[in-house]
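User: Design a sequence. Structure:
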């Protein structure tokens, strides 16, 4: 044998041995307790991801596979261009979603940023890929869910898929919400590329359909001197924004339980032995728009500080089922993708164009951020971690800890745009004031000094530093229900931060007001419960009271209007008797419990009534924001009676009695089951928020209270009660497709087994070990 051949063979042996050594080894123990909750135990982060994905695929394989199709821009290929999917919490046509995801996601940049993350998180994600693929590989076709077992789009996933899924979650309140405005952007020499028949960009959390309540009580007010936390996110009941309960344990390194967003490795909301945390959608704008001054000779060229630049172009092609592929051109500047929004005057003309800069684009930092929260030992550690990474995309953080400290922090990936910068950088076209009414901040892109300010030490240029954003650590309480940071504690309003973070001294939503009323009544001992301190039972009682604050504020005056003239004219011009309706409302308990009669009548009335001009008799007073505005204005009586007449007509058309029990009107459908659902519209001031839509003669929930947890701590560890309102599994064949829904209908909850002894004692315990 020649020395050269020998050397080659030796090199090959070394290479193969190295490859074999480098092949990852995964092992995880999956212990399922009551309601199908998986407890994943492994020796390392790769094993944790492996077990977590395997368990999730057992329960929700089709859900995740479908979302992989979406983020790869392949919905038109498999389902046709005119079908709809959900992107950024809004229904979107398949074709529009495909053009967006194929054009807007930068997988190369995501991979680069992923490589900068901790080895722990990278291994967690790679293990997740392996665990999902293990389940898909080893499960016989007959054992797969019927919804996707024969689907051509069911396939193994890759790291690229995981990065796309994460990016989709990061930009849901920024670039994703501008999907249609990005798709429609085209130079004036070309026809607009997409319809803009929608009213425009959803702006506030309530308009997104988003919401949540997060309360944390500290040692000064709790019965046990430790922290007590309520996590009550209001999120979709469908798509991968569904939560999934899980417990993750690496002995000596990680021990955390709660929920993750579908398809996301790690933990989104939860607790460990020392801290508990939750999130609520924040008021920050995680984007700005820049106005470009164009070259009159070329609408795809623009000037920055006098220098002429040419827009980047990208021909995006989408495969279409049963038809020819479709191609559109995507345009981008140095700030980001081009956008149009005619509703606020932002069009692409020969002189000006508009572009979006997104603070959450390529934000993979979130992975290490949530991993750090899950390992934290105090609220101080949580605050320090989220300030360093700025990886929280668009939610407030509310937390409590064992020693009784509580945290509110609106520390997110937010543009570093001060009030002065926004003022001095107003665009020359004058479009800024129109957009500002919707809190869309438009800056002059022709001046480099108008770009986001760069602060030292931030993980990405142009982000607002964590120490410059709203946060407080207290020992009494903090609370948020999707208004700004201003009233995180009703006794200590916070001073103003830059407007891009959120407003102050403004009208609060009814859930914010209701929550602060409940909290202060508890601390004053005037809520009818024993004592004045807070314990988990009191927190559940406050949430599950299902009080409708709008009804408390409106019905007394509405009944007076009824007494004066018990009839109204419907929008269609029909004279409608309101005698029966007013009688039902007078007898309703003003709650959204399953046995409350008349709740649906008020819901339909208030949908229109709340939009009435000059609605309130007492206007908002910034010195009394919890109790103002209030009282119905007498001059609004004709319009309010029209709203009630319309509600009566609607219910008659649906064949629903005015005094039907709420649980017979609002219910979840699980196979042949109709499961009553308590709670009501968050816009009505119902803390246990529940959005529903009419399907036939029933209101079917689609968004609202999802995972609810109340957590405190004792000498042994965390004490947590929780409920996943819509269940662990989306597979109708699963035993966990309806079990928690039934429990939730009875206002039940699950005591979560956290310690090894508690898990071992669970009567439903089933254990498997997987390895490769």
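Assistant: Done.
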């Amino acid at each position: 044998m020649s020395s050269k051949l020998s050397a080659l063979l030796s090199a090959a042996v070394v290479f193969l041995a190295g490859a074999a050594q480098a092949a990852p080894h995964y092992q995880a123990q999956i212990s399922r307790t009551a309601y199908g909750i998986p407890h994943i135990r492994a020796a390392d982060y790769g094993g944790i991801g492996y077990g977590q994905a395997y368990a999730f695929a057992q329960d929700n394989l089709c859900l995740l596979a479908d979302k992989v199709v979406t983020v790869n821009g392949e919905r038109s290929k498999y389902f046709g261009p005119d079908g709809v999917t959900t992107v950024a919490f809004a229904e979107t046509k398949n074709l529009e979603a495909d053009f967006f995801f194929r054009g807007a996601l930068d997988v190369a940049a995501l991979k680069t940023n992923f490589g900068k993350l901790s080895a722990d998180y990278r291994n967690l994600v790679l293990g997740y890929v392996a665990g999902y693929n293990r389940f898909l590989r080893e499960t016989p076709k007959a054992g797969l869910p019927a919804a996707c077992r024969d689907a051509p789009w069911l396939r193994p996933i890759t790291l690229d898929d995981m990065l796309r899924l994460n990016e989709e979650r990061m930009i849901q309140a920024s670039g994703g919400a501008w999907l249609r405005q990005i798709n429609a952007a085209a130079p004036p020499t070309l026809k607009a590329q997409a319809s803009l028949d929608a009213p425009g960009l959803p702006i506030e959390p309530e308009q997104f359909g988003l919401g949540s309540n997060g309360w944390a009580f500290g040692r000064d007010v709790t019965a046990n001197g430790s922290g007590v936390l309520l996590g009550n996110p209001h999120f979709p009941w469908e798509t991968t924004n569904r939560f999934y309960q899980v417990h993750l344990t690496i002995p000596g390194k990680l021990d955390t339980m709660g929920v993750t967003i579908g398809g996301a490795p790690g933990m989104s909301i939860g607790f460990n032995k020392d801290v508990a945390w939750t999130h609520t959608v924040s008021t920050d704008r995680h984007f700005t728009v820049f106005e470009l001054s164009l070259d009159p000779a070329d609408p795809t060229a623009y000037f920055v500080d006098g220098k002429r630049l040419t827009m980047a172009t990208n021909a995006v092609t989408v495969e279409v089922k049963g038809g020819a592929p479709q191609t559109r051109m995507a345009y981008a500047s140095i700030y980001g993708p081009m956008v149009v929004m005619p509703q606020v005057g932002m069009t692409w003309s020969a002189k000006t164009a508009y572009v979006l800069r997104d603070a959450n684009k390529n934000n993979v930092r979130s992975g290490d951020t949530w991993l750090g929260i899950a390992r934290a030992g105090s609220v101080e550690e949580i605050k320090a971690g989220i300030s360093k990474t700025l990886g929280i995309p668009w939610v407030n953080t509310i937390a409590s800890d064992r020693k009784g400290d509580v945290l509110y922090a609106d520390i997110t990936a937010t543009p570093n745009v001060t009030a002065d910068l926004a003022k001095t950088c107003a665009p020359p076209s004058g479009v800024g004031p129109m957009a500002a009414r919707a809190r869309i901040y438009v800056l002059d892109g022709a001046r480099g000094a108008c770009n986001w300010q760069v602060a030292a030490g931030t993980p990405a240029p142009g982000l607002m530093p964590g120490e410059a954003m709203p946060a407080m650590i207290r020992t009494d309480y903090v609370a948020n229900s999707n208004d700004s940071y201003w009233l995180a504690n009703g006794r200590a309003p916070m001073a103003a931060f830059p407007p891009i973070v959120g407003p102050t001294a403004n009208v609060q939503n009814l859930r914010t007001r209701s929550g602060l009323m409940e909290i202060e009544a508890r601390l004053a001992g005037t809520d009818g419960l024993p004592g004045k301190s807070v314990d988990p039972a009191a927190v559940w009682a406050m949430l599950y009271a299902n009080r409708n604050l709008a009804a408390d504020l409106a019905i007394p005056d509405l009944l007076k209007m009824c007494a004066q003239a018990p009839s109204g004219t419907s929008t269609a011009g029909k004279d409608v008797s309101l005698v029966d309706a007013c009688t039902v409302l007078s007898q309703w308990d003003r709650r959204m419990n399953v046995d409350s009669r008349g709740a649906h009548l008020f819901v339909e009335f208030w949908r229109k009534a709340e939009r009435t001009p000059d609605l309130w008799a007492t206007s908002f007073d910034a010195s009394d924001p919890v109790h103002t505005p209030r009282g119905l204005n007498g001059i609004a009586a004709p319009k309010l009676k029209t709203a009630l007449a319309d509600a009566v007509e609607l219910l008659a058309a649906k064949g629903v009695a005015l005094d039907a029990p709420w649980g017979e009107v609002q219910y979840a459908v699980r196979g042949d089951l109709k499961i009553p659902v308590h709670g009501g519209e968050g816009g009505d001031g119902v803390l246990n928020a529940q959005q529903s839509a009419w399907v036939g003669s029933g209101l079917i929930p689609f968004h609202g209270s999802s995972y609810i947890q109340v957590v405190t701590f004792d000498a042994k560890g965390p004490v947590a009660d929780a409920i996943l309102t819509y269940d662990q599994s989306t597979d109708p064949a699963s035993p966990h497709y309806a079990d928690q829904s039934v429990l939730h209908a009875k206002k039940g909850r699950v005591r979560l087994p956290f310690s090894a002894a508690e898990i071992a004692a669970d009567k439903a315990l089933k254990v498997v070990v997987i390895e490769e």
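The longest strand covers residues 228-236. Confidence is low (pLDDT under 50) at residues 1-20.
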